[in-house]
Design goal:
alpha+beta; 5-stranded mixed sheet; 30% helix; 26% strand; disordered C terminus
């Protein structure tokens, strides 16, 4: 398998889009492109601005004979010398790429199609969400205790404290 090492001036997505365009221009039936990318990921979103060398195993194959949009699968994982040797000796077939990812427990993501997400419940340490209906009830109760009147039916934002 071919391993491309990207310099700091080439983004992985630029290299990937170039491979997809080349695949589309070749327009061969049963065309498959399998390669690996080695690149440095700059985590600029972290306070310490760390960087990590990563490998991406990419497969591009025909979705069907009528489509010009290929199926593009990618798996990204940390780079080690052992993994580089494994990828370079890996046969350039879809089956070997799938098998390698399964053996290493690396996820393969189909990036040429929508990714369906599921909601995740995250417990909030500060308590339950305080929504607008609950806020309206709390404001109304507080104002009634202080002798307030509301100008419109149930509208908590236009309340005026009545003078007693």
């Amino acid at each position: 398998m071919i391993l491309h090492t990207l310099d700091n001036n080439t983004a992985p997505e630029v290299c990937l889009s170039g491979h997809v365009e080349a695949w589309q221009e070749s327009a061969q039936e049963q065309a498959v492109d399998i390669f690996a990318l080695r690149f440095v990921h700059h985590a600029t979103y972290l306070a310490e601005k760390s960087q990590q060398t990563l490998l991406a195993l990419v497969t591009i194959q025909s979705r069907n004979t009528q489509s010009t949009v290929p199926d593009v699968h990618i798996s990204i994982f940390p780079c080690t010398e052992a993994r580089i040797r494994e990828l370079e000796s890996l046969p350039a077939t879809i089956e070997s790429a799938v098998c390698y990812c399964q053996q290493q427990a690396f996820p393969r993501v189909l990036i040429s199609a929508p990714l369906f997400l599921s909601p995740v419940h995250i417990p909030k340490p500060w308590g339950k969400k305080f929504g607008i209906p609950a806020l309206r009830r709390a404001v109304r109760q507080r104002l009634l205790v202080k002798g307030a009147t509301c100008l419109c039916h149930g509208c908590w934002s236009f309340c005026v404290i009545a003078s007693l």
